[in-house]
Specification:
6 helices, 366 residues, alpha+beta
């Protein structure tokens, strides 16, 4: 090619951008997978801790129900109070069944997100710790716009679409190419000496798009050996000049150009939407973290209150100032407060993972 109107350079750059776009998409996919696995893991941890808590509740309720039945047999407990205790125990059984179901579903979900089966769930760490992050939302937005791969990918898509337009527009300029060969050839019987003759060809070609029509001219010159076995010491020259004009054979050029412009404008629109989406994801993750952080603080206060309330109920029970049902209700409220704390811890850790994904760095916030 002698002159292509910039088509070769634009095509090369477009394909190079395609590789960079693929790398950015791969990075985005890795972050999505990491977040989905983290989400499934924290849901599993919350479900496992909830199972442990409800099992403890069921065991305490069963022990207290046995006491209530003994008191009923000696007629120191009314039938209504016994029914209340049985109702509370049935609630704990229902909660235990629901908790175990949620745990099994969480295990299946984690296996699905990790694309594997039969994970060793016994080796997982089910202890969650509070995580503190001191950062403003403006700092998070700045990090997100700087590190997220999606805007960079879409900017490259826009540039790729622009190079695609240049490739199509290059048809509007004359495309000039030159093709040539050179060599030596010959044939001879085994009794004769082999003599090689020079052969060469040259062809020039010009193709030009003219408003939906195509003009094409070629000039071809060949210098070859006309005889093979009998004569190899002569050559023949041949010159051919062709000109062709085709009417309306390239109307698709206008369609392709319009499609390339639409692709670029769509990428520009997607970039604007992605910036708004990133801002929304950062704000959502940030305020989700703040919510779970506050919820955790409240859960610790509630847990302390419920523990003290259980101690009081037990003390009153020893002095016959509280019924078995009241102790069972205190136990249930304590377990609910503890379960709320575990949910808040899981939500807090998941919010941190969401912040890492939102700012575009998988392990930024430890």
């Amino acid at each position: 090619p002698l002159f292509t109107g910039g088509r070769l350079t634009a095509t090369l750059r477009k394909e190079q951008l395609g590789e960079e776009i693929a790398q950015g998409s791969l990075m985005r996919l890795k972050m999505d997978i990491f977040f989905q696995v983290s989400k499934a893991y924290y849901e599993l941890v919350a479900a496992k801790n909830n199972v442990d808590l409800v099992e403890e509740l069921e065991a305490e309720h069963r022990r207290l129900l046995e006491q209530a039945e003994q008191e009923f047999r000696i007629q120191s407990l009314t039938p209504a109070e016994l029914l209340t205790c049985q109702s509370l125990y049935n609630q704990s059984l229902y909660q235990l069944a629901s908790a175990r179901r949620d745990f099994e579903m969480a295990k299946l979900n984690l296996e699905k997100e990790m694309f594997c089966e039969e994970l060793d769930f016994n080796g997982l760490d089910y202890n969650l710790k509070p995580r503190k992050i001191e950062v403003s939302i403006d700092e998070l937005l700045e990090m997100a716009f700087r590190n997220r791969p999606e805007p960079n990918v879409l900017e490259k898509v826009i540039n790729s679409a622009q190079f695609g337009e240049e490739v199509i527009k290059s048809e509007e300029l004359p495309n000039v190419s030159l093709v040539g060969t050179y060599g030596r050839s010959g044939e001879a019987f085994s009794q004769r000496d082999l003599t090689l003759a020079k052969e060469w060809t040259v062809m020039g070609k010009v193709k030009w798009f003219l408003g939906g029509n195509t003009m094409e001219t070629t000039y071809n010159k060949d210098v070859v050996s006309p005889y093979k076995v009998t004569r190899t010491d002569t050559t023949v020259e041949q010159q051919v000049f062709n000109a062709k004009f085709s009417f309306w054979d390239n109307l698709a050029h206008f369609t392709k150009l319009k499609e390339a412009k639409i692709t670029r404008k769509q990428a520009e629109k997607d970039l604007m939407e992605m910036r708004n989406k990133i801002r929304q994801e950062v704000e959502d993750s940030y305020y989700s973290y703040r919510k779970h952080d506050t919820q955790l603080a409240l859960a610790f206060n509630e847990l302390g209150f419920r523990r003290k309330q259980l101690e009081i109920s037990r003390a009153k029970r020893r002095m016959n100032e509280a019924t078995v049902a009241e102790v069972m209700e205190s136990w249930m409220q304590l377990i609910q407060a503890n379960s709320t704390k575990q949910q808040a811890l899981a939500g807090l850790n998941l919010s941190v993972s969401g912040l890492n994904r939102a700012v575009g760095i998988i392990d930024h916030f430890q």
